[in-house]
């Protein structure tokens, strides 16, 4: 990416600064998962073309079908370069050039990067909803394990923390959750606790089969986790 930055600044001078002009930030990389971002489509397309050029020099070709374009406050498409070999000669990189662009980058309303779901509206709802769906599906598989009376409770809590909580809380510290979203997380938490402690719903203990079993979420949260 150093070579990409060097070529971009030599041709177009200023790097994109979607956040701060004093600290240009235009890319994120983790292994071969790369994100490019820019406040305008032209700059983003130039960065993409330069990246394609330098990647091709060392034998790395982009998988065009797996690339995704998340449009924010725009409906303008961006395009891959005309060829993977040599400097790009398209009209974006060289204004006035008759060389056409390559194919458009596929547009996605939701993209997944490093396990986090990002949407055009930049809201936590998309990520939380998908994580809860995956977690509840996993809970369905693990329910016989949690409800078994032959397995120590501390082992169940370990599995709960390392599997279910790990799924639903991954990167949640970077989210700004609403009250409703926190309630959904609590609902999942108490459902698992009820499975592990063999406690039915409050409605069951108060209406269906009235008894003195403490069954509220508060009661469950106060029980020793062993």
TrEMBL record:
It comes from the Eukaryota. InterPro entries: DNA/RNA_pol_sf (IPR043502), RT_dom (IPR000477). Pfam families: RVT_1 (PF00078). Residues 1-118 form the Reverse transcriptase domain. This is Reverse transcriptase domain-containing protein.
